[in-house]
Design a protein that fits this description.
Layout lengths: L1 H18 L1 H31 L5 H9 L3 H29 L5 H8 L2 H10 L8 H28 L7
Helix pairs in contact: 1-7, 2-4, 2-5, 2-6, 4-5
């Protein structure tokens, strides 16, 4: 009886936690979009400036890798910005390629720590009102309930057939 109560509590806790996945993912994507939008004009300006000298972004970056002195100092800033921009755009493409049901799972596997921390610092859990939130909540409940039910079933089998769940 006690085991079943713990399984229900674990299921409810995981239901609440898992149901937040879609909302957190949406806020993460919004934050990611803002970061990309912030870097885009800098990268576009860089592309335009190097194009004036018949360079592509790639050829300019290759030349920056061997630059010295003042040019190295200027290049390192642009290299950092361009690399970050390209990485964030690729990350956004990966998230956008996932369907709405899989996006929280893709995010859990590929998140960028600084963005996730920024989102988490302002994230306020709420009752999910979307099909995805309900589905993730139901999945979380089942995972928590089944995990503890199985654990207590094994314990009962190990200790003389006593039922813990």
């Amino acid at each position: 009886m006690f085991g079943r109560l713990l399984a229900l509590i674990a299921g409810a806790a995981l239901a609440v936690a898992a149901s937040q996945g879609p909302a957190f993912t949406d806020q993460y994507v919004q934050n990611l979009t803002g970061r990309i939008d912030e870097l885009r004009p800098i990268v576009e300006e860089f592309d335009a400036k190097v194009a004036e000298y018949d360079y592509t972004r790639e050829s300019a970056m290759a030349e920056c890798k061997v630059a010295t002195g003042l040019l190295d100092a200027l290049c390192s800033t642009y290299e950092t910005v361009v690399e970050r921009y390209e990485m964030l755009v690729a990350h956004m493409a990966e998230l956008n390629a996932a369907n709405i049901w899989m996006r929280p799972l893709v995010l859990a596997r590929t998140y960028k720590k600084d963005i996730a921390e920024s989102v988490y610092s302002v994230f306020k859990p709420a009752v999910p009102a979307t099909p995805e939130g309900f589905a993730y909540g139901g999945g979380g409940f089942l995972a928590g309930f089944l995990a503890l039910s199985i654990l207590f079933g094994i314990l009962g089998g190990l200790f003389g057939g006593r039922r813990y769940a």
